[in-house]
Amino acid sequence: MSLNPDIRSEVETPTNLFYVISEGYAADHLFSWFSKSLNKHPEVFALLAHEGSRPKYLKERTRGERPNIINFSEFLHDMGMTFGSIGDCYSFRAHHLFELNQSEKFKNVPKLYLIRNPLIWIYFYQQWRSSNMRMGSGKTNPLEWEWSVANHIYFKQLNLKPYKKDDVNIWSFYQGLQLIDLYCHGFISDHYRVEKIEEIFGKKKKFKEIFEFLTKIKCSDSFIQNVFENKKKLYKGEKKLPTSEENILDIWEDWQFDAFFKILQPKSIEILKAFYKKEIPENILKINYHPQKKKNIFVSSQLKSGTHLLREILKGLTKMNYHEPFKNDKEPPNNDELHNYNNYSWIDFPKNTFFSWHNIINSETCSLLNSSRTVNIFLTRNIYEILFSFYNHLKFDADKSINRSIGDSSCFFEHGTEAAIYNLINGYGSADFNFFGMKVVIEQLKSYCDFLKSTTAFLLTYNDLINHKEMLCKNLSAYLGVDLTTIDLEEILKKTSREKMGFNNPHITKERENRLKDFKKHLHNGHIAALNYLIYSVFRNDNVSINFCNKLGLLDISSMK
């Protein structure tokens, strides 16, 4: 007897993957119906959202985490080997799928973004949150987690109805409105096929079209008939909807109407009108929206790009102090917390302050800025200048004179300057010292470029700060809508002089040139190639952003000064 050398056919045949996403299906029977209807076909396996359950059993530390999307896609691919198509419904959010678009293997995976009439969606979301917060938590605590990520300070600033932790029905309603703003501003895009769940539910032809789009499987009339015969069935744990959107509004209290028009931006309401013109009652769409008169100011700066100088200029222009994460914390965070620049939950606007930190502008940050109606300022610098500044910072503890000592970093340079520069680029970790590397500042820059493609911000460079400060102050005052008198300008220029800022220390003036010469002497083509690789890994094929950065002299060593 001999073994058959042939490979099993299901191993040879690629599995058709798909993803269905939403901002949370919230135990809404239409979303459940859709995933269960996909599963009615014998060749389809559709997983239904496990984002709240996985942390109980798997290594994810919070309810907000998700498995790596590429690894999860490989998992689905193998698990669905004996099916014609396999996919996930609602476990991931839109921003979790961005990496798929960069993957050669999975870039063409169908991605369906299901949206729902916002009045109905927020009804289910509020009911769902209010009822599931105190369920058995396993390794996570739903109430504590959702409370920790809710934007309480912003809700308070809007002068919404106050609440306590137990008032889940109130603050979850506010959370839900922010999520509606999120999909209106961030995720209705060419990366996804956007469809109304109501239209799929109401039309057999539409369901068939979407089914075949996702699964690549032709379906019969008998299958469609079977699906629609069960479309009004409520499944376990699901809640009936009041008879109409008007009925939902009938049970709304004044604080809910108030929140709707304070949290949702006019742009979001216009988008919702376009999608749900007939379904959303005219009486709610006609309500006049009154925007906040005072704008919050959000500043993100690349590391080592002149953050403190810009803060002083803005303090002079706005007569406000800056706020940064952990500024007033008695216990400083560990390195992982401090350098997690993707953490949008740090963003806060205490009274009479502007926010300033090194944020990477991810999708959650973008949504928060949109809903917070911020004016945005981004500060950049040539990446080779940043690299040299890091070199100076670590080798000579150059910021010790301005009370920002990094301690003993000698281990970083124990293998020579060339090896140290590689470590500066790629990152370094040991028992004695850790450094995150240059990828962070490149990710910051890329995120600014992405943001500017759809939203307004004031972008400035380190060169503007140093060499064109007076003009910069005038342009910033105009952008912020603040008066700038001649006396004010003179005072700002005086307070931000090299002497006043502490820029007369050796690493800025007389020793800088010698250190720069030494740095350039050890900087060779291998280092440049390593930096270029990081640029490629972050920017990929986004030539528009790369060309934009090159025009500003941000990626080219020849622009280093």
Give a description of the structure.
About 2% of the residues have low confidence. The protein starts with 8 loop residues before the first helix and ends in a 10-residue tail after the last helix. 34% of the residues are buried. The chain has 561 residues and is α/β, with parallel strands linked by helices. The chain is globular. The longest helix has 20 residues. The strands form three sheets. It has a five-stranded parallel sheet, with helices on both faces. A five-stranded parallel sheet has the order 7-8-6-9-12, sandwiched between helices. A two-stranded antiparallel sheet has the order 10-11. The chain is 47% helix and 10% strand. It has two domains: 241 residues, 3-Layer(aba) Sandwich (Rossmann fold), CATH 3.40.50; 264 residues, P-loop containing nucleotide triphosphate hydrolases (Rossmann fold, 3-Layer(aba) Sandwich). Helix 9 runs parallel beside helix 14.
